Amino acid sequence: MRAEPSSAARAGETARERTSAGVSFAASLAFETIHYRVGSTEILKGITLAAQPGEILCLLGPSGSGKTTMLKIAAGIERQTAGRLLLNGREISGPGTFITPEKRGVGLMFQDFALFPHMTILDNVRFGLKQLGSGAAKREAMAALARVNLQEAAQDYPHMLSGGEQQRIALARALTPRPSVLLMDEPFSGLDSRLKDVVRTDTLQILREAHATAIVVTHDAEEAMRLADRIALIKDGELVQVGTAAELYGRPVNLFAAGFFSELNIVEGVVRAGRVVTALGPVADSPSSDGSEVTVALRLTGLRLNEREAGVSGRIVARRFLGGVDLMTVAVEGLDMPLRSRMRAGLVPENQRDVVVSIDPQDVIVFEKTPADR
Ligand SMILES: Nc1ncnc2c1ncn2[C@@H]1O[C@H](COP(=O)(O)OP(=O)(O)OP(=O)(O)O)[C@@H](O)[C@H]1O
């Protein structure tokens, strides 16, 4: 084995290789106990998270949770105040290392696409290929345009293309230098909802074909579920949970995580003889000891009206027709707040007020109460 060069030299070297390599190769990118402080405000509070080679990792969280700051740190636009950033296991930013953005081999794509309006599409795409000779740059750029199926637009200007086409050009531009990791900040937020679906599906396919590692920021849980191999849920600068969509949806670690993926009714419960008992009756099994207080999150789709004979009595106090479903608000004795139910439209007749309320066990999530909850 030959002697290892310094990590800074290695990272710079790999970045150079990558900008001109014929095939992109996916890298891992790891945040290691990353803190970011501005004045006395701690914006990131020790985040440890890694995107694996070829993985699409979504950073999901509410506005202001620190997602964009994480991308900026990954790109080298901001520098963390503590912690390390590793590309393929090699430190690219840490207490004694800082590889500049252009040497990292990390691509960035922000929400407004930022195509240069005065340049043709071809020139926009080959902008990031200055290191290559002009012939090679043109070939690479045309191949990238072919990949997003827009080679015919090469001589057009950005304003001549639709929002979705511009987004695909921006993606082609971000991918042509063959970054080992592509960072995307709300890449679909500028598109209307119908176009968003199509462009998102196309993007996913292009990322897969390019075998790119991608870290995608979104505040939309459904978008994260559609795109991601894994989702990292962020709140107030902390990592709440990381896992597949099914893991976060099915086994959320707390009410915040549960509420991010589903609309919920929240009711109080107490454990009696191994069952969680609420005003709606027993709703789940529990290993906790008798008398333990729990919080029960109940997805709206799991509150069923008139489906079974067994259940508690309820009264519909409001209903809304939402196309395929009816959203109904139901008052139940013993509960201060009415509950909401989403059921296939028309299952409960329009004029019916009094209903039998039952629970679908797969839509029940039970959380032990922490001392802070009591
Ligand atoms: N340089 C800075 N100086 C002061 N505050 C900052 C700075 N950078 C970020 N912040 C603050 O840090 C918090 C996190 O910002 P960030 O943009 O990372 O959040 P976000 O999760 O991407 O939110 P959004 O979805 O709204 O873009 C915000 O409250 C923001 O105002």
TrEMBL record:
Q: Could you confirm whether the keyword Membrane appears in this record?
A: yes
Q: What taxonomic classification does the UniProt entry list for its organism? A: Bacteria, Pseudomonadati, Pseudomonadota, Alphaproteobacteria, Hyphomicrobiales
One Pfam family matching this protein:
ABC_tran
Q: Which named protein is this?
A: ABC transporter ATP-binding protein
Keywords associated with the record: ATP-binding, Cell membrane, Ion transport, Iron, Iron transport, Membrane, Nucleotide-binding, Transport
Q: Which GO terms describe its molecular function?
A: ATP binding
The record's similarity note reads: Belongs to the ABC transporter superfamily.
The ABC transporter domain covers 29-261
Q: Does the keyword Mitochondrion apply?
A: no
